[in-house]
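Design job #97: recover the sequence.
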């Protein structure tokens, strides 16, 4: 009897009541598992495209360039750096 209830859909109805997003997620999971080779090829192509573009990335570690030039605290920092550059300890 219990097995018949699960196969008959009673368990599915209770799950659907608790989680209304399950049907779209279930469709997505069924698509992924049903088209495994297509998904694998698509992920491989996306990975290759991203890996090819990595050579054009540049990293700039310039703290002063990231600060706003006209901000008062930045101007005072720049002034104090230039005035202390000529001072001797």
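Job complete. Output follows.
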């Amino acid at each position: 009897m219990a097995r018949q209830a699960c196969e008959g859909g009673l368990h599915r109805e209770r799950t659907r009541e608790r989680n209304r997003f399950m049907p779209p997620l279930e469709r997505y999971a069924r698509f992924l598992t049903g088209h495994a080779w297509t998904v694998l090829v698509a992920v491989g192509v996306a990975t290759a495209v991203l890996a090819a573009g990595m050579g054009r990335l540049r990293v700039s570690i310039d703290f002063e360039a990231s600060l706003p030039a006209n901000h008062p605290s930045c101007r005072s920092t720049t002034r104090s750096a230039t005035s202390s550059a000529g001072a001797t300890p």
